[in-house]
Amino acid sequence: MKKYLLLLCFSVGLIAQAQVVENDSLTDYMVKMPQDSLFSSSIPLDEVYLFGKLEFADRKERLRYYVLRRKTLKVYPYAKLAADRLVELNDSLKKITKSRKRKKYTKEVQKYIEGEFSEELKKLTRTEGQILIKLIHRQTGKTAFELVKELRSGWRAFWYSTTARAFKIRMKEEFQPELIHEDYLIEDILQRAFAYNRLERQKSKLNYDYASLSNKWKKALPKAPE
User: For this UniProt entry, which residues form the secretion signal (predicted)?
Assistant: First the structure.
């Protein structure tokens, strides 16, 4: 409650600092924030989620959620880093016109990314690796298999997929919080971590609404016993 009171006070303070100009209709107003040069009809604010109380059917479900939370918080930074590197790569490739130089630069970036990730990723468990695969899809909009296929050859992607399958990790796995309850729980864990600054927020490349998902799964699943 204190958090939302502070947010309200902050918003009121911003409005107080804004310059207000009444137009000819005497009913509409335009505002200009201190850091802006142009007037606007509204003040943009970040989304604020009101999280419901976590409820579990039994102790086993509670433990499952907390294990999933620990693993998700652990691997999310790697997925975010992968998305950041992909953006950097694509931005750089836009400036390179010659095909040979593009291939050479891409290969150099691939080696750098593999060197940056490999040692840490070797320490992940199978389930942590699978969560990472899902989060890479969340952060980039592409599966790990698709990314490897784009950055390397189709054969390399097949080889990676076959190797991952040997460890029961599916590189074609997608993040589907609207269809898979565990994926929704992962999204819920991320949103709560973003809100409490435990993780650096990065918007998903996928098209779904967290609030709508919360309502859907709340209605779909049986309630915890009183």
Answer: 1-18
Which regions of the chain are under pLDDT 70?
1-50, 113-114, 116-117, 153-155, 157-160, 163, 166-167, 221-226
Residues 6+ apart with CB under 8 A from 129: 75, 121, 164, 167, 169
Q: What is the pLDDT of residue 186?
A: 97
pLDDT at 5: 34
pTM reported for the whole predicted model: 0.73
Residue 141 is which amino acid?
A: G
pLDDT at 219: 80
**Could you tell me which of 92, 126, 139 has the C-alpha nearest to residue 112?**
92
Q: How many CA atoms lie within 13 A of 67 on its CB side?
A: 10
DSSP assignments along the chain, one per residue: -HHHHHHHHHHHHHHHHSEEEE-TTSS-EEEE-TT-SS-BSS--------PPPP--SSHHHHHHHHHHHHHHHHHHHHHHHHHHHHHHHHHHHTT---HHHHHHHHHHHHHHHHHHHHHHHTT--HHHHHHHHHHHHHHHSS-HHHHHHHHS-HHHHHHHHHHHHHTT--TT----TTT-HHHHHHHHHHHHHHHTTSS-----SS---HHHHHHHHHHHSPPPP-
Rg (CA), the chain: 22
